[in-house]
Specification:
Elements: H1 2-10, E1 23-24, E2 35-37, E3 44-53, E4 59-69, H2 72-82, E5 89-90, E6 99-105, E7 110-115, H3 125-139, E8 147-152, E9 155-156, E10 159-160, E11 163-164, E12 168-170, E13 187-193, E14 200-206, H4 215-225, E15 243-249, E16 252-257, H5 268-282, E17 290-295, E18 313-314, E19 321-322
Parallel strand pairs: 4-19, 7-8, 16-17
Antiparallel strand pairs: 1-12, 2-6, 3-4, 3-5, 6-7, 8-9, 8-12, 10-11, 13-14, 15-16, 17-18
Helix pairs in contact: 2-3, 4-5
């Protein structure tokens, strides 16, 4: 069963994967269109880059500190090509690939990315899917970029390892999907841990129960249920934890969990994964900006490892931060 799931995920578009990217025919540049550098409107000191988990099944967004720059798109691609800056992750691009240029055309929101011919070392369709998906996810995190056009040595390429590249590659509807079939309706995104308990992995799963009518509740229920046994992922909430109540008012989600939620008893890693996964899962919804955590209906000052939970907690500023 695990091998079947791996193959299915590897061949689909979506953080281990989801659906194939949709492509749109790239409009022929008109005579008035000119290339322009992709510059952010201000200097940024972080980029969000997508690497693979150690087993290659999922993509993981990693926040990397950089020297402040407006060339955010260029820097993000260079970090992607350089490979992960810490253990527990795998690169998605072949060794030796270099970035020749990244630019846009006037009036377009497509990033044209020109690589050296080393990109053509990719001969396997699954490796190509992983490389392209990580590139598109990384670049569409940059403000103003909605699609990616891949080039090699300044030339359009019709395909890469059998994957057609005639048009613009748009961001997939899910980062990593464990939903069967093509549709993402009735699904929610939750954050589980990778198999080494080092990173949070965004995964789209089927919404339990009446998910479509109450997606925040469905998302928390899915988070508490944990990942499928053959997914290669780990739960972030202690087994047996129940959702006693959830209400959203004035941008704050009040989440009441049973006492099993603190059954881990301690350990900073477990506590950080627990709190951050809950915050990232709930604050994906526009109506939720903060989360007030209750245990058995009561407010607590701190969790076992010292995380303050007396007041509502905001969405973390960055995901899977690496300081280099």
């Amino acid at each position: 069963m695990a091998s079947v799931l791996f193959l299915a995920l590897a061949l689909l578009w979506s953080p281990g994967c989801g659906r194939k990217a949709t492509t749109e025919a790239a409009p022929a540049p008109g005579p008035v269109q000119q290339t322009r550098p992709l510059l952010y409107d201000k200097e940024l000191a972080q980029v969000l880059v997508y690497y693979a988990t150690s087993d290659g099944r999922y993509l993981v967004p990693v926040t990397i500190s950089i020297n402040p720059t407006r060339e955010v798109a260029k820097t993000a691609v260079e970090k992607l090509l350089a490979g992960p800056p810490e253990d527990g992750l795998n690169p998605t691009m072949p060794e030796g690939v270099k970035l020749r240029e990244v630019y846009a055309l006037t009036g377009e929101k497509t990033a044209y990315v020109d690589f050296t011919s080393d990109l053509l070392k990719i001969k396997d369709a699954r490796e190509a899917e992983l490389a392209l998906r990580s590139l598109v996810l990384t670049l569409t995190e940059v403000q103003g970029i909605e699609g990616v056009k891949v080039m090699v040595e300044g030339q359009n390429i019709p395909e890469l390892a059998g994957i057609k590249l005639e048009g613009t590659i748009k961001r997939p509807p899910a980062i990593n999907s464990l939903v069967q079939g093509e549709g993402q309706e009735g699904s929610v995104q939750v954050y589980f841990s990778d198999e080494q308990a080092l990173h949070l992995v965004p995964v789209t799963v089927a919404a339990p129960g009446n998910g479509e009518k109450d997606l925040p509740r469905a998302a928390v229920e899915a988070l508490l249920a944990g990942p499928p046994k053959d997914s290669g992922l780990l739960p972030t909430v202690w087994p047996g934890t129940k959702l006693l109540h959830l209400a959203v008012q004035d941008g704050v989600a009040v989440v009441d969990l049973s006492k099993e939620a603190v059954g881990y008893g301690g350990g900073t890693t477990m506590e950080t994964l627990f709190v951050d996964s809950l915050l990232w899962t709930l604050t994906q919804f526009p109506s939720i900006h903060k989360v007030q955590l209750l245990i058995e209906g009561e407010k607590r000052e701190y969790l076992p490892e010292g995380t303050p939970i007396r007041d509502p907690l905001p969405r973390p500023e960055h995901l899977n931060v690496v300081y280099h």
